């Protein structure tokens, strides 16, 4: 079993930055791929970014490419999402997810993830 706890959300103005963190406990952290998803009110949960087990490969949604950066620190059992140039459209609850898939790939598909955190709210004001 893996437990994921997100932090770092909050209220920020358009153009501002936030860094989300997700600490994992349970299985060996380096053994799973990690992703960030978000869900705005009335919308489905959508892919934001993912990083492979090794950290060598990343993948981003087109809407955040060039503004967001995903990274991981295996020594701290933590995955990060650095969010820059935030827009009101980025407002959502952000979720961290982990997959125990055997491939070293950054997965975009929500149904490939096995464990989820409780989420952290990000609000971008105009």
Descriptive notes:
- The chain starts with a strand and ends with a strand.
- Strands 2, 4, 5, 6, 9, 10 and 11 form a seven-stranded mixed beta sheet that branches. Strands 1-3-8-7 form a four-stranded antiparallel beta sheet, with no helix packed on it.
- It contains no helices and eleven strands.
- The chain is 0% helix and 48% strand.
- The model has no long low-confidence stretch (mean pLDDT 95).
- By secondary structure, the chain is mostly beta strands.
What is the topological layout?
Blueprint: E1 3-7, E2 10-13, E3 18-25, E4 33-39, E5 46-51, E6 58-60, E7 68-73, E8 78-83, E9 92-99, E10 115-116, E11 120-125
Parallel strand pairs: 2-11
Antiparallel strand pairs: 1-3, 3-8, 4-5, 4-9, 5-6, 7-8, 9-10, 9-11
